[in-house]
Protein backbone atom coordinates (compact mmCIF):
# COMPACT_ATOMS: atom_id res chain seq x y z
CA UNK A 1 0.00 0.00 0.00
CA UNK A 2 2.69 2.51 0.93
CA UNK A 3 4.77 2.08 -2.20
CA UNK A 4 6.35 4.83 -4.26
CA UNK A 5 4.82 4.76 -7.75
CA UNK A 6 6.81 6.66 -10.37
CA UNK A 7 6.42 7.55 -14.02
CA UNK A 8 9.82 8.06 -15.68
CA UNK A 9 10.63 9.21 -19.21
CA UNK A 10 14.07 8.39 -20.59
CA UNK A 11 16.16 6.42 -23.08
CA UNK A 12 16.93 2.70 -23.02
CA UNK A 13 20.64 2.48 -22.09
CA UNK A 14 21.24 -1.30 -22.34
CA UNK A 15 19.83 -4.11 -24.45
CA UNK A 16 16.99 -5.82 -22.54
CA UNK A 17 18.02 -9.13 -20.97
CA UNK A 18 15.25 -11.75 -21.16
CA UNK A 19 15.16 -14.86 -18.95
CA UNK A 20 12.73 -17.75 -18.54
CA UNK A 21 12.62 -18.49 -14.83
CA UNK A 22 10.63 -20.93 -12.69
CA UNK A 23 8.36 -18.02 -11.66
CA UNK A 24 7.78 -17.01 -15.29
CA UNK A 25 9.42 -14.72 -17.84
CA UNK A 26 11.55 -11.80 -16.62
CA UNK A 27 13.29 -8.94 -18.42
CA UNK A 28 15.48 -6.06 -17.31
CA UNK A 29 17.22 -3.10 -18.86
CA UNK A 30 18.88 0.14 -17.76
CA UNK A 31 17.08 3.41 -18.31
CA UNK A 32 18.89 6.76 -18.56
CA UNK A 33 16.90 9.83 -17.49
CA UNK A 34 18.53 13.18 -18.14
CA UNK A 35 17.07 16.47 -16.93
CA UNK A 36 17.16 19.30 -19.48
CA UNK A 37 16.86 22.97 -18.74
CA UNK A 38 16.91 26.25 -20.64
CA UNK A 39 20.16 28.15 -20.09
CA UNK A 40 19.12 31.83 -20.30
CA UNK A 41 22.66 33.15 -20.57
CA UNK A 42 23.54 30.97 -23.58
CA UNK A 43 19.96 30.75 -24.96
CA UNK A 44 20.24 26.99 -25.47
CA UNK A 45 18.87 23.81 -23.91
CA UNK A 46 21.44 22.19 -21.61
CA UNK A 47 21.61 18.65 -20.26
CA UNK A 48 21.55 18.31 -16.50
CA UNK A 49 22.33 15.32 -14.31
CA UNK A 50 21.59 11.80 -15.64
CA UNK A 51 19.93 9.23 -13.37
CA UNK A 52 20.09 5.52 -14.20
CA UNK A 53 17.40 3.05 -13.21
CA UNK A 54 17.25 -0.72 -13.62
CA UNK A 55 13.80 -1.52 -14.98
CA UNK A 56 12.38 -4.96 -14.18
CA UNK A 57 9.44 -6.48 -16.05
CA UNK A 58 7.68 -9.78 -15.45
CA UNK A 59 5.27 -12.14 -17.19
CA UNK A 60 3.73 -10.90 -20.46
CA UNK A 61 5.29 -7.46 -20.03
CA UNK A 62 8.74 -9.11 -20.07
CA UNK A 63 7.94 -10.97 -23.29
CA UNK A 64 6.70 -7.77 -24.94
CA UNK A 65 9.75 -5.77 -23.77
CA UNK A 66 12.10 -8.35 -25.27
CA UNK A 67 10.25 -8.11 -28.60
CA UNK A 68 9.78 -4.33 -28.70
CA UNK A 69 12.46 -2.37 -26.82
CA UNK A 70 15.94 -1.57 -28.15
CA UNK A 71 18.91 0.52 -27.00
CA UNK A 72 18.47 4.26 -27.59
CA UNK A 73 14.69 4.25 -27.84
CA UNK A 74 12.73 6.80 -25.79
CA UNK A 75 10.34 5.07 -23.40
CA UNK A 76 7.90 5.88 -20.61
CA UNK A 77 8.03 3.54 -17.60
CA UNK A 78 5.51 3.39 -14.77
CA UNK A 79 6.09 1.21 -11.73
CA UNK A 80 7.19 0.83 -8.11
CA UNK A 81 10.46 2.54 -7.15
CA UNK A 82 12.85 0.52 -4.97
CA UNK A 83 16.08 2.09 -3.72
CA UNK A 84 18.62 -0.32 -2.25
CA UNK A 85 21.90 0.33 -0.48
CA UNK A 86 24.47 -2.47 -0.20
CA UNK A 87 28.00 -2.78 1.10
CA UNK A 88 30.36 -4.32 -1.42
CA UNK A 89 33.77 -5.76 -0.68
CA UNK A 90 33.40 -4.86 2.98
CA UNK A 91 33.78 -1.08 2.62
CA UNK A 92 32.31 0.42 -0.51
CA UNK A 93 28.65 1.42 -0.30
CA UNK A 94 26.62 0.91 -3.43
CA UNK A 95 23.13 2.32 -4.10
CA UNK A 96 20.78 1.24 -6.87
CA UNK A 97 17.40 2.50 -7.96
CA UNK A 98 15.16 -0.17 -9.47
CA UNK A 99 11.70 0.16 -10.97
CA UNK A 100 9.35 -2.85 -10.90
CA UNK A 101 7.47 -1.91 -14.06
CA UNK A 102 3.72 -2.07 -14.38
CA UNK A 103 3.65 -0.46 -17.85
CA UNK A 104 6.30 0.39 -20.46
CA UNK A 105 5.71 2.18 -23.74
CA UNK A 106 7.49 4.18 -26.39
CA UNK A 107 7.49 7.98 -25.92
CA UNK A 108 5.32 9.13 -28.83
CA UNK A 109 6.31 12.77 -28.31
CA UNK A 110 9.68 11.81 -29.82
CA UNK A 111 8.68 9.33 -32.52
CA UNK A 112 6.07 6.92 -33.83
CA UNK A 113 5.27 3.32 -33.02
CA UNK A 114 3.05 0.68 -34.57
CA UNK A 115 1.12 -1.14 -31.87
CA UNK A 116 0.48 -4.83 -32.36
CA UNK A 117 -1.59 -6.76 -29.84
CA UNK A 118 0.32 -9.71 -28.42
CA UNK A 119 -1.14 -13.14 -29.04
CA UNK A 120 -2.57 -14.70 -25.91
CA UNK A 121 -0.27 -17.40 -24.60
CA UNK A 122 -1.74 -20.86 -24.85
CA UNK A 123 -2.96 -21.94 -21.46
CA UNK A 124 -1.84 -25.36 -20.29
CA UNK A 125 -4.35 -28.13 -20.81
CA UNK A 126 -6.59 -28.46 -17.81
CA UNK A 127 -8.59 -31.47 -16.76
CA UNK A 128 -11.87 -31.26 -18.61
CA UNK A 129 -15.00 -31.49 -16.60
CA UNK A 130 -18.00 -33.28 -18.06
CA UNK A 131 -20.64 -31.01 -19.50
CA UNK A 132 -23.62 -30.73 -17.13
CA UNK A 133 -26.87 -32.35 -18.21
CA UNK A 134 -29.26 -29.44 -18.67
CA UNK A 135 -32.15 -31.62 -19.88
CA UNK A 136 -35.18 -32.14 -17.67
CA UNK A 137 -34.94 -35.65 -16.25
CA UNK A 138 -37.77 -38.03 -17.24
CA UNK A 139 -40.48 -38.54 -14.66
CA UNK A 140 -40.07 -41.76 -12.72
CA UNK A 141 -42.53 -44.56 -13.42
CA UNK A 142 -45.46 -44.64 -11.00
CA UNK A 143 -46.53 -47.60 -8.93
CA UNK A 144 -50.08 -48.99 -9.39
CA UNK A 145 -51.09 -47.41 -6.05
CA UNK A 146 -49.91 -43.96 -7.23
CA UNK A 147 -51.74 -44.51 -10.51
CA UNK A 148 -55.00 -45.36 -8.65
CA UNK A 149 -54.64 -42.26 -6.47
CA UNK A 150 -54.17 -40.04 -9.50
CA UNK A 151 -56.91 -41.68 -11.54
CA UNK A 152 -60.29 -40.03 -11.24
CA UNK A 153 -63.10 -42.31 -12.27
CA UNK A 154 -65.28 -41.07 -15.10
CA UNK A 155 -68.91 -40.57 -14.28
CA UNK A 156 -71.09 -43.51 -15.20
CA UNK A 157 -73.20 -43.09 -18.22
CA UNK A 158 -76.92 -42.77 -17.42
CA UNK A 159 -79.28 -44.63 -19.69
Characterization of this structure:
Residues 114-159 are annotated as: Disordered. One of its GO terms (biological process) is DNA replication. InterPro entries: NA-bd_OB-fold, Primosome_PriB/ssb, ssDNA-bd. It comes from Streptomyces filipinensis. This is Single-stranded DNA-binding protein. This protein is mainly beta. The chain has helices at 59-68, 144-150; strands spanning 5-12, 17-21, 24-39, 44-58, 74-88, 92-106. Strands 1-3-4-6-5 form a 5-stranded mixed β-barrel. It is elongated, with a radius of gyration of 34 Å. The mean pLDDT is 84.
Give a brief description:
The protein is mainly beta. The protein is 11% helix and 47% strand. A five-stranded mixed barrel has the order 1-3-4-6-5.
Comma- or semicolon-separated keywords:
single-stranded DNA binding; five-stranded mixed barrel; 159 residues; Primosome_PriB/ssb; mainly beta; DNA-binding
Amino acid sequence: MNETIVCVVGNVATQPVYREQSTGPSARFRLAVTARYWDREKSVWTDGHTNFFTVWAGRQLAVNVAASVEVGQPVVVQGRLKVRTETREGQQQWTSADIDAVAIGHDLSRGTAAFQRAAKPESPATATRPEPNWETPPKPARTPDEDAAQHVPEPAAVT
